[in-house]
Fold:
Amino acid sequence: MTAPARFKDLCLDARDHQALADWWCAALGYVRRDELEPDEEGWVRPTDWPVPIADPSGAGPLMWIVPVPEAKVVKNRLHFDVIGDTAQLLAAGAWPVLGGLLGVAFLRRRVPVPGPDLPV
Structure:
């Protein structure tokens, strides 16, 4: 049986989508897709548009960091299981999530409690 769908891209909503795109690029070694595929005519993506970030090796999924006007109001129901340099990830604002098999620590971005002037 053939599946009716396949995974294409990952989309994340954020109040400060530019900062979140930069954070995930630094954490995962991704780059903004526009750097990988620059426009031949010099077009520049408007800063209020969603930001596509990509794995330069082509191995990881394309991620879209999408601007939203509303603050986060409930707990995330999604986190990313990543492996890498734990100390560097923690220093960049990730935090361990308890659980996993064989004592593996999962990390996700630490987000401050939203307020009127704090991006999420």
About this structure: The CA atoms of residues 79 and 88 lie 18 Å apart.
